[in-house]
Structure formats: structure tokens, C-alpha cells
Amino acid sequence: MFKVxxxxxxxxxxxxxxxxxxxxxNHLHYHNVYGLLMAxxxxxxMKLADKNKRPFVLTRxxxxxxxxxxxxxxxxxxxxWEHLHMSISMVLQLGLSGQPLSGPDIGGxxxxxxxxxxxxxxxxxxxxxxxxxxxxxxxxxHEPWSFGEECxxxxxxxxxxxxxxxxxxxTLFYMAHTRATPVATPVFFADSKDHSLRTLESCFxxxxxxxxxxxxxDQGSDRELLLPKGIWLxxxxxxxxxxxxxxxxxxxxxxxxxxxxxxxxxxxxxxxLTLLIALDENGRAEGSLFEDxxxxxxxxxxxxxxxxxxxxxxxxxxxxxxxxxxGLWKRPDRxxxxxxxxxxxxxxxKWGIDGEVLQxxxxxxxxxxxxxxxxxxxxxxxxxxxxxxxxxxAGSGQKGTVSKTPVExxxxxxxxxxxxxxxxxxxxxxxxxxxxQWLFSRIExxxxxxxxxxxxxxxxxxxxxxxxxxxxxHADQDESLLLEGDIGGGLVLQRQITIPKDDPKVxxxxxxxxxxxxxxxxxxxxxxxxxxxxxxxxxxxxxxxFVSFTSVNGSKHEVWPEYGKKFYEGDLLPNGEWMLVDKCxxxxxxxxxxxGEVYKCFIDWGAGTVSxxxxxxxxxVSKQSPLKISHKYEVRxxx
Length: 639
Known about the structure:
The protein is of the alpha+beta class and 639 residues long. The chain is built from 6 helices and 38 strands. Helix 3 (115-125) runs parallel beside helix 4.
């Protein structure tokens, strides 16, 4: 039943639902509700088996209210920097949609992570509400120790950091349970009037803690960050590292932390309790700590302890005390360690007994400045002394070689340069008879690129490609190059570039996404993918250049730069050919393609550039049903 392209029940399957759900309807109506009910039935079955345990169910299929029964993970992702970056917004959007317990597959489910990518992802993922590493059978080992000592150390620090903050995270989950507030929230929650905060995609709030991650390959934790207005004091747990997120505590906040442990089973209510405090402009701070058995339902009968702590500065003395408690539990007999943040990681600390009033005498402004400067210098030295994770190549397990030197093809009318190590990008496409360089490109970006999804910079454009086959021009052979890139999930993107011996005016490119090792558990089909051809061309005479074509319906089009970005599909799709025309040169770059392989075309004019893109349909692929786009370029005279 499920071995179909959609990987789900046929849409015309009939469900006899309850009247309040819609009654008798087809599967299209109940698809998401079906996922919710699967989670609910699993939850209720586990609860019947042991009423003294809280069931843990994990799902990626759900509907409104599924958070009552299951945690959510963000689905099958890839071992790419783009998917690392996307994981923040996905977790935040799930939280805003009522799913507080969510997180991605750390390191990516499919594909092979590099040491730096995996370490950065673990550093970030350890701060997500749901923290789990996961990889499919076709990936290389994704355990922290599989990537070398530097990555293993970063993963160790990241997980220790999570356990240090587990009391704070658990308290946030209590707030989510009782007040429906997300555990992780966008930074603009700190100041909804500051619209610039809405553009931040590499950081988020964990209650009063701002987590700022490095989600780009060449970024470190020392980059500049746009902070919300107010007081934000940086802190760490003596674990400062360029591959770990930076942490900031909002002024006016108190958060609890505990000792580093290997697992929650090692924790004890008598363990030392630490309060991290950041005073606001008025010298005040407050925060909460929720404690219960960690399992079962005793908390519904009052078997818990909710403590409200408050700190106040008066006459150069900071007093820390309990302002309110709730629950039937007696306060544990434990030591209290107060750490008062004063800036640049510097802090004043004092020990006492939890439940008793504790006071810290503030030093003079001169002494505080000395402490802050000393801490700043100490942090600088610590960062210089640690070893960043090296950026190594992910093993592909493919035949062929990965070239770090541009591959040149030169035959007939064309001379090309290809860089296999960054998305198999074509960075030079020179037409020899006219002397025109048609492509606009730099090593890292632009040029001729290909993608495998609808989102911007999806996989395909930055992965390493392997040179599978290289044929030089001989008397009876074409000049050709065959590249292949692993895009994860058992899929590879192949590109054959050919300058035919019998038609030297033509440059032919045949691209395809092939399901090489798609798992049987998915019915032999991959995730939803779309092959996107994305070349960017230079305009020598921008005001005298346009795109000309005849649509499938016979209508003729001349598209000039002032049109901006335009999509053409259906009857308006170019009927197998379109041409980039330079009236000053009297030349046009014709692009011929198979209409049956192209779902839509788009034209995107830039400053002295234009992108002429082609998209396939979006669908899963299998070994028997790859996605393909074959097309040819040729320069012609235009009158």
C-alpha cells in the first residue's frame, strides 16, 4: 500500500471518522489527523502498560494537540551547513505552533558530516529542547569520536553544558506545560518592537538565555552579534570554544544550573545548586526552579517544589532570597552557589545554604573594572589556546577522485572550467569564436550551479563532486566530463558535460538525480526533491539585452531587465528553447531543452547579470525513476 511516490495511503482510502472529526472522509482529509492518532494511541497504550511512568513517544507526523502525546523531530535532514542553519528556524516555528519538545537529527540523517559540521551541530543541538544524534545506515559513522579528538572534545563540552543547564531547561518545560509558552523562542521575543531582531537566524532564546550559534562554515563564536536592547551578560562554564555557541543571560534574570553529570540518573536533590544572576538596570533579578521526581504523575497531586528566587541590590549589597514557593515538597538540604555576572564572563560568587538569605558585597567600580578586564583577557587567552575543529572532507565512499584543481574542457567553440570541490560548479564558459565569457562567477558562488530542492541554496551547490570519468578529445571521441555528488539519503547528483565531436558549436549538459541506495523502509522512494538548473550569466550591455522565446501556447515573449524576476510554466513555458540576446553584439546564447523534463523556467535579472533557471517537477525518485534535465547551449547570430 505504501510503496507509492507519496509514501502514504492512497488519497481515496476511506476513513470512518467520528462525527466531530468530520465523519466518513477520504485519506486526504484525515492524513495529518491520522499521524496525531498514531501518536495518541501509542501514548495511551504505554500509559496503560505502566501508569507510574510518563510515556515518551517521538513523531514527525502530527496535527494540532499532538504535543500532548509526543515529541517532534524535524524529519529526515541532510549533513549540510544549509540544514544545520535551517534547524534553528524549524525548531522555533514548531515551538510557535505549539510543539515545545522538538529538535533535528544532529549531524544530519543522510550524507556524511565533516568534523566541523558535526561539532558545530552538536554544540547547537545540545541547546535545543530535544537533543538527539541520528544517522542512516548509508552514512559514515556519526558518533562524536568518529571525527577526531578536536570534534570529540567539542561534543563532550556541549553535552556537559546541556546537563549543567538541565534544571533550567526542565523548568522551561514546566512553564510550557502550565502556561503554553515555547521552550525555545525567537530572539525578537525579547523586544517585539525591534524589527531588526526578526532577521536573526543563527540565535534563539532559551528562556532568559540567548544562544548564539555559528551556523556558517567559516564563522566562529567571536563574531559580532546584534543583541536586543537592555543588559545581556555573556557567560560560560569554563568551556569557551570557537565551535560552541555563545551564551548570554538577560539582565533581570536568575537561572538555575547543576553539576555536570553523565545522565540524569546520576542527579540527586542534595546536589549543589548554582544560581546564575544578571541584574537589570534597577539592580533586580528573579527566576524560577521547578523540581519533581522527573517521572510519573505525582506533580499533578502537588508532589513538587516550585521556587521563586529574587536578587536585589541595595547600598552596594546584593541580597539573594526566596520570594515564593509552591508545592508539597520539602526543600532539599543542599548548598547554594550564587554567581553574580558583572560582564565579559566575570562574576562574583558566594556559597550558602539553599533556603537561607545570602548576601554579596559589591566591590568598588575600580575593582569591578579590573575584574572585567582580567576576565576579558583570560577569555582571549583561552580561545587562543583551544584547538578549533579542523575542516576536513567528508568521505564519500564513491569511486573516482576529488580534484582541488579546476578541470578544463576545451574543444570546438567552447572552453570551460569546472571546480568539482564546490558543487561541481562551472566557473568559466567562454565562447572561443566570439571571445565572450558568458558566465558570471566567483570560486565560491554563482556560475553554473545545480540544486536539489525548492529552498534557497539546497543541497547540490556546495557538496564535493567526484570526477567519475574524463574523456579528452580524440579522433573518435567527444570532449566530456562526468561528475557525481553525494547529496544524502542514498541520492547522487550526476552531471555529464559534453562538447560533441560531430557538433562542436554545441555545449551539452545532462543532469540527473539518481536513487542509488534509497532505503527499503521508505518503499524504495526518496524524499521530495526537485532538480534546479541555476546558471548566472554576465551582461556586457545590460540595457540592450533581453530574453526571447516562444511559449508552448504559441505566444512570443521578449523579457527585459525591468521585468525583475518572472516564472513561466504551463502554457507559458518556453517551447523547448529560449535565447539570451545582446543586441549590441548581434549575438544570442540559445538554450535548448526537453519540455517533458522541465516543469518551470524562471528569469531573474540582477545588477549586470541574469539567471536563466530550469526546474524539474518536485517528486521522490527511486532507482527506476530518476529526475533528469538535458539541455544544450549554442551561440547564434541575431538580427
